[in-house]
Amino acid sequence: MLEENMNGHRMAQGNSNADQSSISANGTSSSNNCADYTTNGIMNHNSHQNQYSTQNQNVQLDNTNRDIVRLIGQHLKLIGLDRTAQMLMQESGCTLEHPAATKFREHVLSGDWQKADYDLQELQTIVDDDKLTKHNLIEMKFLLLEQKYLEYLDDSRPIDALHVLRNELTPLQHNTPRVHQLSSYMMCTNNQELYERASWEGKNIKSRTRLMDRLQSYLPASVMLPPKRLHTLLRQAVELQTERCSHHDMAWETSIDNVSLLSDHNCSDTAHNFPMYPVQILNEHSDEVWFCKFSPNGLKLATGSKDTYVIIWDVDPEKHQLKHRKSFECHPNGVSFVTWSPDSKYLIVGGTEESSELLIFNIDELKLHSKVSHSNDESLTCAAFSPDGTRFVTGGIRGQFYLCDLEGTILNNWDGVRVNSLAFLNDNQTVLAADTHYRIRSYCFETRNDYNMIQEQHPIMTFSVNSTDRLALLNISSQGLHLWDLRDKCVIRTYQGITQGTYTIYSTFGGVNESFIASGSEDNTVCIWHVRREEPLATLTGHTRTVNCVSWNPVFHDMLASCSDDGTVRIWGPKPGNGYLSSLISGSTSSTPATSSSSSLNHNDDHMGNSNNDWNIS
């Protein structure tokens, strides 16, 4: 394993129920939310209604069931089943909304603005002041007059529109900037220009419905339910199930429109193909294996060891089976890291702190392409390719920080920067470097600009950045694994379950749409998390010493590689029997019985990680 001393040097070591009440038109509150609203407080039923009342006079609905009935009734009316909604209200004895609210809705949707204004005044008398404040009342009146003004313009009645603007909107002394904006619409030469400038749909039921939805939000639910309330509750339920789904693909925008409401959300396909089971053990290395990395095209795996060799493995794209391709003898003190070019053609191989040169191999031709060596006193312990593959950066903890081309020529340098991990961002200019001051700083060799991105309280051993450049995953000495938001420059999660001391351990993003992360650990295990959850999704056992590095295949997402001080590289895949895996196990380089390795799956769906920034990072 690789251990970092107190200076960060790498060295080789041996080892609602909301209580709602109905409100009568005279302003008094009824104790039963299901009682009909009447003008005199007396229930008034016709013979048809009395039939339902007689049949169900013994039905007693509690608050929850009354709320559910009202939600269903609102949804039935929303989808056009008005008679069904009316029968539901009659049979249950409930009332969907206050009669004054019903009149208000009808007058708004029909464009009878004078009556809508009278209705608004009536609503003011029956709703408590703390539920319909003076400010909200003025805002509602402003919205009504705004629609009235725009409809006059749409009807080519500028004189009437001007009267509304001067004598009704302006005296409210509310939202003056909006009043000025509305006045500018008088200059529109045609209706289409008005629609575009006002972001308005014209004088029709659609724009009035949108207005009603906005007005409805100011009224308490006991008088008028919020717009599409059942739809909102179902959407929230789907979102919560999505957040609790251990295997959820974050790129899938789940909504009530694309999932079934008849069963709980479950990414079963992802779960069935999740790499949690040992399918192959590679044991060609003769000493501790410090690093492993799949190529960007997913067809190769490179592993580096204390035995001085880097081994290239081929991945069969049909059988997903790894086969030995080539071994290269590299650094005398061991291979501590490798990095692939974006086109999977070149491989940079670096050594320990004692190594002063980098080796660049052409993997297509299986030969050494070039070297980077400036001075025997230097230490080059990390590197990262530019996205275009024409350059790379390299550095070490002795103060070297270079920008080079593929021939090994140093194009530029930054003096006095002691780095131990690097990443090149997608803009092809910005380089992130973790240094010995517990920071990650941003560098641009072209503009010579640099600034702090991240400041930790303990040494940053290694870090990786996801494909969007939004998230950074940091392995912190004695602290474990931290997930940073690079845009907001804050820690958004601290993952549990990993044992991280002073050894250099590499973690990775992976899985479908990089929805998961995996890391080695000093307790000989591999830990896997969903990016949004702090507790491990799975803990993979089988290695007998520290797991130094984990790599997730970027193309074949059901393949995971881990390497350890026990001298082995383990390949993890779905449960045996899922498709190709039965043949994969029998054809492995060195197979192992399933009992020698295991995975522990955490089903604690009640645990929710820190949820700020769901990108959808959010």
TrEMBL record:
Spans through the membrane: none
Localization per record: Cytoplasm
GO biological process: proteasome-mediated ubiquitin-dependent protein catabolic process
Annotated protein name in UniProt: CTLH domain-containing protein
Origin superkingdom: Eukaryota
Cytoplasm among keywords: yes
Keyword Repeat: yes
Keyword list, A-Z: Cytoplasm, Repeat, WD repeat
Domain CTLH: 97-160
Chain coiled-coil ranges: none
Gene3D superfamilies: YVTN repeat-like/Quinoprotein amine dehydrogenase
PANTHER family noted in UniProt: WD REPEAT PROTEIN 26-RELATED, WD REPEAT-CONTAINING PROTEIN 26
Composition bias, Polar residues: 34-52, 609-618
Low complexity composition-biased segments: 21-33, 591-600
Cellular component GO terms, alphabetical: cytoplasm; GID complex
Annotated region (Disordered), positions in chain: 1-52, 591-618
WD repeat residue intervals: 282-323, 513-539, 540-572
PROSITE patterns noted in UniProt: CTLH, LISH, WD_REPEATS_1, WD_REPEATS_2, WD_REPEATS_REGION
Alphabetized Pfam families for the sequence: TPR1-like_2nd (PF21889), WD40 (PF00400)
Main localization category: cytoplasm
